[in-house]
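User: Let's play a game. I give you a shape written as tokens, and you guess the letters that built it. Ready? Here's round one.
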């Protein structure tokens, strides 16, 4: 029977930085969330998810992360089943079928799969001293299967993260040069296929993101309004609730996908730089933990989580700045959304567990 206890010798960076990001997110959500949805109610909802997330964090920090190595196949199979189920009974929002309605909670299985995919690949490669061609093919199938299901929702951003997030796991898994050439060949074949599976509006985003001015009231609208909001923040920002672009809803879904633009307008360059610094510290700490972990599974898992956060921040901030195509990627710990927040707290808890055990503390 598992008896979780709050760990001694915790990594305060892994504990405190997520809390700071959550607090910043709740403050901004309260100031820019749509009035018709109830700004206070959305902020309170995010606060409740945060409390649940903290509980998940403490629990997973207290138990042995190696339990997930044994549970990885079951977790993967269950989450894959949820991805199939969401296509059948999922609720439609913003033209996509990504959520399973559980009453007070909207479950987004693609968010779970981002974490479960990293756990599964870490388990898969950690159990192999030598990666054979058949192993590599199986690993690629483990990635491609959920990617295809997520693309059916459609959710191009999450599919992209499912591909990019586990990249360091492959790098650290003793893959030969010939196998890397095989992976490159698969990527060359898969990327065009993915493009042809996209919805028309998604293709339009890819085709116009380099020049959003050509369709300022269509596919280029989100990016233009986001960059205006970021520029309007100046050096110190206009203050929470004072930014016209965010509070008047010129920036669409400013409390979720475009929350970075809302933060930049409210707090300016200094606030945005502080936020990105917190992310940099958190991600660097996670990569460092990959070097300190006592076993291969811990090293691969740490690197995979760090990479998942790195790509999430890069894509979200990049689309807010107009540097990458617009995709529905939340900013970890900051954007509104229960599935994303709980998943990220769970990942942080696993990292904390890895940190605790690298210090070789007694766990009786």
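Assistant: Ready! My guess for every position:
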């Amino acid at each position: 029977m598992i008896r979780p206890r709050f760990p001694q010798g915790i990594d305060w960076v892994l504990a405190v930085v997520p809390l700071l990001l959550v607090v910043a997110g709740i403050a901004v959500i309260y100031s820019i969330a749509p009035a018709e949805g109830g700004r206070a109610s959305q902020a309170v909802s995010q606060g409740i998810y945060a409390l649940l997330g903290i509980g998940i964090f403490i629990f997973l920090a207290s138990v042995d992360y190696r339990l997930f190595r044994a549970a990885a196949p079951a977790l993967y199979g269950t989450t894959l089943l949820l991805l199939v189920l969401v296509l059948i009974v999922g609720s439609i929002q913003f033209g996509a079928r990504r959520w399973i309605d559980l009453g007070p909670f909207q479950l987004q299985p693609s968010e779970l799969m981002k974490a479960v995919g990293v756990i599964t690949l870490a388990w898969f490669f950690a159990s192999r001293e030598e990666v054979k061609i058949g192993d590599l093919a199986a690993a690629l199938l483990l990635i491609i299967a959920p990617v295809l299901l997520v693309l059916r929702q459609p959710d191009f951003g999450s599919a992209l993260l499912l591909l990019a997030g586990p990249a360091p796991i492959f790098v650290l898994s003793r893959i030969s040069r010939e196998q890397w050439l095989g992976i490159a060949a698969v990527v060359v074949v898969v990327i065009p296929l993915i493009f042809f599976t996209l919805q028309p509006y998604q293709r339009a985003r890819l085709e116009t993101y380099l020049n959003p001015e050509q369709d300022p009231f269509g596919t280029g609208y989100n990016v233009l309004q986001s960059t205006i909001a970021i520029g309007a923040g100046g050096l110190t920002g206009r203050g929470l609730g004072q930014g016209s672009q965010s509070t008047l809803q010129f920036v669409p879904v400013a409390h979720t996908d475009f929350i970075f633009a809302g933060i930049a307008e409210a707090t300016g360059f200094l606030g945005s730089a502080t936020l990105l610094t917190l992310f940099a510290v958190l991600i660097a700490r996670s990569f460092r933990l990959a070097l300190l972990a006592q076993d291969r599974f811990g090293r691969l898992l740490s690197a995979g989580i760090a990479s998942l956060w790195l790509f999430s921040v890069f894509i979200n901030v990049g689309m807010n700045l107009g540097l990458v195509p617009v995709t529905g990627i939340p900013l970890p710990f900051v954007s509104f959304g229960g599935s994303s927040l709980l998943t990220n707290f769970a990942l942080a808890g696993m990292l904390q567990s890895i940190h605790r055990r690298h210090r070789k503390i007694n766990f009786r």
